[in-house]
Amino acid sequence: MLVMIIELLVVLLALYVGSRYGSLALGAISGIGLVILVFGFQLKPGNPPTDVIYIIIAAVTCAGIMQASGGMDWLIQLAEKLLRRHPDRITFLAPFCTFFLTVLVGTGHVVYTLMPIICDIALKKGIRPERPCGVASIASQVGITCSPIAAAVASFVVISNANGFDVNNLQVIAVTIPACLCGLIVASAFSYKRGLDLDKDPQFMARVNDPKLREYMYGSSATMLDKEIDKNAKRAVFIFLGALAVIVMYSVFQIIGCDMRPVFATGKTLADGTAEMKPVGMNIIIQIVMIAAAALMIVFCNASPKKAVQGAVWQSGMVAVVAIYGIAWLADTYFSNYLDVMKSSLEGVVSQYPWTIAIAFFAVSVLINSQGAVVVSMLPLAYSLGIPGPILLGVLPSVYGYFFIPNYPSDIATVNFDRSGTTTIGKYLLNHSFMMPGMVSVVVSTLVGFLLTMLIY
């Protein structure tokens, strides 16, 4: 038991040190943990999540090509038009815009262009920017478990199917989208009158009374409305949306019993002597459709592959691949070697209170800045403990906990974008602008998701 605890500390230390250096380091430093566990403690190596990695690569390539074509700029423009049309409702509309951008593209890193616009609109309207900015940053990450092409959703489907829970991407987001929207509505309501109004905030008023700071805050306007969007950019968005529609179509027909997926022989023989036939997995369909869509954008939308690999979407996606690769491999190496011990220790609690796995998901996510990595590393353990698939689907929103320690890029960027200085990290680290909307959103989303799956399944 002492050796098991020491090895667990090695895993946790690797995650902690990696998180100090960023997502790419999380994957690389996990390799040091693997060296210690495999060569030092002689543990049998686990399996890296190759199926999940392939899906991420395909989806990120497609989204990155769309960004290179200018399609992402068009989506940001549409969101800005909505926000500027209703500036007094920005605390509710801003998180919905960042949420649905993430749902469409599969990564929360697309909001960096929109966040300064949100800050600018709020400040010019006299609304404390912390109110929409804090919840909008949270919403950009909440949307990951609601995107049919995101790593977290793809990982959940692949691992669940391998463990006997036959579910597809559409069935997952049919639970997570309404659950997470409920969480965001409550978080936005809690944020609506959060903090002092600007004219009653002594710190803000002191900044206003300083001519240089006043010019810094009010002297310029962040906008995308003056950027011209060409036909290629719009065409790329339509191709991207068409690819998503094809993926959803296959899922819908699968649900209603008219499975359209191609069927192939597995190479095995059934008891009656006939060849075993199986349809192509949704993970393969997603990869094929996304790669094909990326190719269509390159050919018909003048999208530059070189520009795509320099963009934020592609780069952040590839960083996520490395992080998931290292973290999941390290976690699987540890858990697979001690599966029997953990089952005997935890199955009593888990059998009585299976929802408690949500606490474990959240706690691990605080250390790992990747929802996909949390799913890949923790979901196999959850299934091995006998937790039913519908319950795990219900608590899926709980894999977002990395707002707890405000070191994630989107949160740091939001603080810097807010020229008013109202969105802050806080003197004591945990008293930051993202804690309240993050906790409210995740708790409400998880409860609603759990109730939905109880009703559906």
Describe it for me?
The chain is globular and about 80 Å long. It contains 21 helices and two strands. With 457 residues, it is mainly α. A two-stranded antiparallel sheet has the order 1-2. The longest helix is centred in the C-terminal third of the chain and has 26 residues. β1 and β2 form a beta hairpin.
Which key phrases capture this entry?
globular, 21 helices, mainly alpha
Topology record:
Blueprint: H1 2-21, H2 23-40, H3 50-69, H4 71-85, H5 90-105, H6 115-125, H7 130-142, H8 151-162, H9 169-191, H10 202-208, H11 211-218, H12 231-255, E1 263-269, E2 275-279, H13 282-300, H14 305-310, H15 312-337, H16 339-352, H17 357-367, H18 371-384, H19 389-394, H20 409-417, H21 435-456
Helix pairs in contact: 1-2, 1-15, 2-15, 3-8, 3-12, 3-13, 3-15, 4-5, 4-12, 5-6, 5-7, 5-9, 6-7, 7-9, 7-21, 8-18, 9-21, 12-13, 15-18, 17-18
- Count of strand segments: 2
Q: What is the percentage of strand-forming residues?
A: under 5%
As a percent range, the share of helical residues equals 55-70%
Distance between the termini: 38 Å
Radius of gyration: 23 Å
Largest sheet: 2 strands, antiparallel
Instruction: Decide which structural class fits the backbone.
Output: mainly alpha
Shape: globular
The average pLDDT value, as a whole number, equals 89
Total helices: the number is 21
Strand order of the largest sheet: 1-2
Low-pLDDT ranges:
none
Summarize the structure.
The protein has 457 residues and is an all-alpha fold. The chain has 21 helices and 2 strands. It has helices at 2-21, 23-40, 50-69, 71-85, 90-105, 115-125, 130-142, 151-162, 169-191, 202-208, 211-218, 231-255, 282-300, 305-310, 312-337, 339-352, 357-367, 371-384, 389-394, 409-417, 435-456, and strands spanning 263-269, 275-279.
